Amino acid sequence: MTKGNSIVERQLVVFNLSTETYGIDISAVHEIIRIQGITEVPRTPEFVEGVINLRGRIVPVIDLRKRFGLDLVEKTNNTRIIVVEVDDMTVGMIVDSVSEVLRLPVDSIEPPPAVISSVDLEYLQGVGKLDDQIIILLDLNRVLRQEEKAQISEESFQEVAAAQE
């Protein structure tokens, strides 16, 4: 929502990872899907689970637990893949669960405090407070470094796509 030329609130997709609650801007989210067959791809970074065929499009999938160095857990019925757009690249992110879509007033967002130790501060935009809920805002542009984006770009998976046809 905007007031004049300034944004007064952000609409977020809220998800859970380990014991924390995260939010990403809904404008970056294409869709949220259940976990499905992921084809492993050799010589990719450790946090890349592989690729999925999403209606004919090969989409790389990363595991946010691995990316953030969190303990790994079994996937459950609540596990989801959030398909997002990052720098003109479509990427799936595995999360523990997706809880809701909500609006967060911009004035309730603060820089991330140094006490957040579960995730590297470089991945965060800030921390939002809504009632008694704390939401860690993820900076999607920092989740993947430039060289990592090149490694998992759609072009690099053309062999996988050809093999699946």
UniProtKB/TrEMBL annotation:
Keyword Cytoplasm: yes
Location of this chain's protein in the cell: Cytoplasm
Chain ranges of the CheW-like domain: 9-149
GO cellular component term of the entry, any: cytosol
Record InterPro entries: CheW, CheW-like_dom_sf, CheW-lke_dom
PROSITE patterns to which the protein is assigned, alphabetical: CHEW
Gene Ontology terms describing biological process: chemotaxis; signal transduction
Keyword annotations of the record: Chemotaxis, Cytoplasm
Major site of localization recorded for this protein: cytoplasm
Protein name: Chemotaxis protein CheW
